[in-house]
């Protein structure tokens, strides 16, 4: 632990932020997995619903700052392609 008062505060702030973002990251991974699972099962309705949720979380990820915009664009493209290829 740091000796400087401001660094002690910063360490606590970083820890709080890390814990807050952990939930968001987990929810994003779960949403992406739900789209892939529904697409693999050829369930168009579930895939579209999951896709909407994933898009919402991906957009939040950019605003929160824990995912880059190119990562989000790539994921959206891949997921949309998977949904569109359902028979």
UniProtKB/TrEMBL annotation:
One of its GO terms (cellular component) is small ribosomal subunit. Keywords: Ribonucleoprotein, Ribosomal protein, RNA-binding, rRNA-binding. GO terms for biological process: translation. The keyword tRNA processing does not apply. SUPFAM superfamilies: Ribosomal protein S20 (SSF46992). GO terms for molecular function: small ribosomal subunit rRNA binding; structural constituent of ribosome. Belongs to the bacterial ribosomal protein bS20 family. Binds directly to 16S ribosomal RNA. HAMAP family: Ribosomal_bS20. This is Small ribosomal subunit protein bS20. It comes from Grylomicrobium aquisgranensis. The lineage of its organism: Bacteria, Bacillati, Bacillota, Erysipelotrichia, Erysipelotrichales. The gene is rpsT.
């Amino acid at each position: 632990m740091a000796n400087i008062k401001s660094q002690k505060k910063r360490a606590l702030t970083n820890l709080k932020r890390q814990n807050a973002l952990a939930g968001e990251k987990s929810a994003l991974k779960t949403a992406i997995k739900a789209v892939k699972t529904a697409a693999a099962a050829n369930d168009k309705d579930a895939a579209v619903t999951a896709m909407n949720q994933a898009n919402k979380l991906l957009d939040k990820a950019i605003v929160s700052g824990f995912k880059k915009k190119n990562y989000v664009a790539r994921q959206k493209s891949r997921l949309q392609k998977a949904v569109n290829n359902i028979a």
